[in-house]
Amino acid sequence: MTKVANNINGDNMIQKRKFLFYIFLLIMGLSITIIFYNLTSYFYNSKKQIEFNENLKEMVISNKNKEFFDVNFKELLNINSDTVGFIIVNGTNVNYPVVKGSDNNYYLTHSFIKEENEIGAIYLDYRNDLDELSRNNIIYGHGRLDKTMFGSLSNLLTKEWFDDEDNHYIKLITPKRKMLFEIISVYTIPKESYYLKTYFSSKKYFKKFLEVIMKRSVFNFRTNVSTEDKLLTLSTCQNNYGKRIVVHAKLLMETK
After folding, report:
1. Residues paired with residue 97 on neighbouring β-strands, in sequence order
2. 90-132: per-residue pLDDT in tens?
3. For the chain, which residues make up each domain, given as ranges?
4. Which of 49, 193, 194, 212 is the most buried (most CB within 10 A)?
5. Superfamily of segment(s) 64-255
C-alpha cells in the first residue's frame, strides 16, 4: 500500500514538474515575443524618424550666422496645423519643428504627423505662447537612446560640449519671430514640477526661481540673469528611472 502511494506521489511530482516546465517555456516565449516586438517597433520608428529628419532639411535653411535661420512654415503647417515653431540646439541633433497641443499628453504618444507611437514629438507646454512669451516657456521631448528627439541633450552634460562656447545657444523661430537664447543652466534631477512653472505672482518669486535653477547647474555659464529675462526651458527624460535632463536659457535677442 505504501509502495503504491509512493508511486502515485512520484507520478504527481513528475506531472507537476512537467507542468511548471511548460509554464516556464510559455513565459519565456511570451517574454521573447514582447522583447522582439519592442525592439522591432523601436528600430522601425527610429528609421521613420530619421527619414522624416532628412525631409525636414528641405524645409529649413540654417545660415552660418548663429543669429538667424529660415523655415518653410507654410509646408510645416500643411503637415500639422499645430506647428508653432522650429528649434535648433547647438552641439546636438535637436533640429525639429515644435508643436502645441491642447494638453501636455497628446504629443507624448503622437508624432509630428500625428501618428501614434512612442517617439512622440517636440512640443510646447500648452500654457505657453511663443509669440507672447511667459517668464518661463517650456518645450518637451523624449530622450531617445538613438539621439533623436531630445536624446542628444545629454551632450550638454559633457565638458567637451561646454568648452565650445558656440554651443551655448538655442535658436527658436516662429512664423512671426526669430529668437536667440543663451543657455544659463543645465542639470539632471528626479522628476518634479518645480522647474515647470510658467507663471510667477511676483518678481520676488521669479528671482527665487532663478537663484534655484542657477545653483543646480553642473556648469557655470558665467551669465547674468534678472527678473526681466524671459526663459526657455527644455525638459527630457534621462533614463527609465524618472530622472530628467533640464536646460534653461534666457532670451538674448529677437527679430520680427
Report:
1. 86
2. 999 999 999 999 999 999 999 999 999 889 999 999 999 999 9
3. 1-56, 64-255
4. 49
5. Sortase (2.40.260.10)
Tell me the three-class secondary structure of the chain, residue by residue.
CHHHHHHHHHHHHHHHHHHHHHHHHHHHHHHHHHHHHHHHHHHHHHHHHHHHHHHHCCCEEECCCCCCEEECHHHHHHHCCCEEEEEEECCCCCEEEEEECCCCCHHHCECCCCCECCCCCCEECCCCCCCCCCCEEEEECCECCCCCECHHHHHHHCHHHHHCHHHCEEEEECCCCEEEEEEEEEEEEECCCHHHCCCCCCHHHHHHHHHHHHHHCCCCCCCCCCCCCCEEEEEEECCCCCEEEEEEEEEEEEEC
pTM of the entire structure? 0.79
The CA distance from 143 to 149, in Å, is: 7
CB 86 within 8 Å of CB 71: yes
**In degrees, to the nearest 5, what angle opens at C-alpha 244 toward C-alphas 46 and 52?**
20
Distance of CA 58 to the CA centre of its chain: 23
Residues 246 and 233: beta-carbon distance below 8 Å? yes
* 202 C-beta neighbours (distance < 10 Å), count: 9
pLDDT at 10 over 70: no
Here the cell at position 214 is: 542657477
In the numeric block, which cell numbers belong to residue 195?
A: 522647474
- The torsion of the CA quartet 139, 253, 61, 57, rounded to 10 degrees, works out to -10
Is it the case that residue 43 has pLDDT exceeding 80? no
Q: Return the half-sphere exposure (C-beta side, CA atoms, 13 A cut-off) of residue 57.
A: 6
CA angle 133, 135, 136 (to 5 degrees): 90
